[in-house]
């Protein structure tokens, strides 16, 4: 009988006797479920931020900031950048810039500041970005969709809230009033974008500039004719306007993600590793007991010609399947518990439990199963028929 035929017989026998090992098998399932829950609960935060950032960048849009922020942490670049209004003329005549039907350059001078609205679910203030956009700002963003209310009027203390921000903070319903920077602002609408912008509050740039008493803008966004026009646009603008940093929007958000500290990942894998040690011990104990309880059956199989390796592989496969079941269970719990939760750090975004994280959990499950089942499987493979009968 070949290896595959032997494996089929062994797996069929395992299934028939599985009801006798349900309680002990739960040790593996529950252990791996806890590993998955602990590991993925932290990784899902990072996944939500990663997807939010990478959905925000477009190759045919450019951000112009002051060169002084080139070596500043990406999360603070916009806030610390200062671009004088005189730069707008140079941006508007740079080669490759897109234009409206009436010939106007597709550019928008923007300003932003951090504000601290109150969270809905706790009596504490969060950290939020209030972003001022000019007349063409939203027009350049094809992903922007107003889903309720109207746009804020220039010269009025009015704002629209991203759908994600509206979920997280109080007083963000259309028509509500919220106090920001000691001023009463009226929420006139909600919008969606599927990007980082959806976690922001948006108002008119000139209004915010006046409220802050700030002379310069934080950045200029420009839309190119196509992505290939970037090199010429950047070269000419940086030559004619020294002191500016010109970067594709997609590169900016990629650098932002690269600048995110590694601490959450270290904590996630360290915690997952500690729990995995317990799961490995549980798997080792469970599979050792299973092999011992089935010693007579193994002896009979070996006596009728079954090899040691098929028996060992059957032990490993059983442990792997139980571990993977635990990983799927843990991922499912995280998905029901965390997926879509609105989190406030580095902006406001949704926690995401994705298929990629399920693969991470399954990878850990397979690793735990292989390590925990190795000794019992080796014992089953190496033992002779006489030893198996004696152990039974």
What's the gist of this structure?
With 392 residues, the protein is α+β, with helices and mostly antiparallel strands. It is built from 13 helices and twelve strands.
Characterization of the model:
The chain is built from 13 helices and twelve strands. The chain is elongated, with a radius of gyration of 30 Å. The two termini are 25 Å apart. The mean pLDDT is 87. Strand 6 and strand 7 form a beta hairpin. The chain is an alpha+beta fold and 392 residues long. The chain folds into two domains: 182 residues, no CATH class; 163 residues, no CATH class. It is 52% helix and 17% strand. Strands 1, 2, 3, 4, 5, 6, 7, 8, 9 and 10 form a ten-stranded mixed β-sheet that branches. The longest helix is centred in the N-terminal third of the chain and has 33 residues.
Helix-strand layout with pairing:
Layout: H1 3-16, H2 22-54, E1 61-66, H3 74-80, H4 87-93, E2 107-115, E3 128-133, E4 145-149, E5 158-162, H5 163-168, E6 177-180, E7 183-192, E8 201-204, H6 205-212, E9 219-223, H7 230-240, E10 244-248, H8 249-258, H9 263-293, H10 295-303, H11 308-338, E11 342-344, E12 348-350, H12 355-382, H13 385-391
Parallel strand pairs: 3-8, 5-7
Antiparallel strand pairs: 1-9, 1-10, 2-3, 2-9, 4-7, 5-8, 6-7, 11-12
């Amino acid at each position: 009988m070949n290896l595959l035929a032997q494996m089929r017989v062994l797996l069929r026998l395992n299934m028939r006797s599985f009801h006798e090992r349900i309680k002990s098998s739960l040790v593996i399932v529950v252990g791996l479920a806890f590993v998955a829950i602990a590991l993925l609960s932290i990784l899902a935060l990072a996944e939500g931020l990663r997807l939010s950032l990478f959905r925000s960048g477009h190759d045919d849009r450019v951000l112009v900031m002051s060169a002084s922020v080139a070596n500043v942490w990406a999360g603070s670049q916009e806030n610390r950048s200062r671009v004088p209004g005189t730069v707008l003329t140079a941006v508007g005549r740079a080669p490759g810039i897109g234009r409206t039907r009436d010939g106007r350059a597709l550019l928008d001078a923007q300003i932003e500041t951090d504000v601290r609205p109150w969270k809905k679910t706790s009596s504490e203030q969060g950290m939020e970005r209030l972003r001022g956009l000019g007349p063409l700002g939203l027009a350049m963003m094809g992903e922007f969709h107003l889903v309720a209310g109207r746009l804020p009027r220039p010269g009025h203390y009015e704002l629209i809230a991203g759908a994600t921000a509206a979920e997280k903070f109080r007083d963000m319903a259309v028509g509500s009033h919220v106090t920001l920077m000691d001023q009463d602002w009226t929420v006139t609408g909600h919008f969606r974008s599927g990007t980082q912008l959806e976690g922001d509050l948006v108002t008119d740039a000139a209004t915010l500039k006046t409220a802050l008493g700030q002379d310069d803008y934080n950045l200029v966004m420009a839309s190119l004719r196509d992505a290939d026009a970037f090199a010429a646009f950047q070269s000419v603008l940086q030559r004619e306007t020294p002191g500016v940093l010109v970067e594709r929007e997609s590169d900016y958000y990629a650098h932002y993600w690269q600048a995110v500290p590694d601490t959450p990942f270290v904590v996630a894998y360290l915690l997952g590793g500690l729990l995995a040690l317990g799961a490995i011990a549980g798997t080792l104990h469970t599979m050792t007991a299973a092999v011992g309880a089935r010693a007579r059956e193994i002896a009979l199989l070996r006596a009728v010609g079954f090899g040691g390796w098929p028996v060992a592989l059957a032990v490993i496969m059983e442990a792997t399947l139980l571990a993977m079941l635990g990983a799927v269970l843990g991922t499912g719990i995280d998905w029901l518990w965390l997926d879509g939760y609105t989190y406030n750090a580095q902006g406001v975004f949704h926690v995401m439990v994705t298929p990629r994280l399920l693969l991470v959990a399954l990878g850990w499950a397979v690793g735990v199963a292989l390590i925990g089942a190795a000794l019992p499987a080796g014992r089953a493979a190496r033992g002779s028929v006489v030893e198996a009968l004696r152990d039974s």
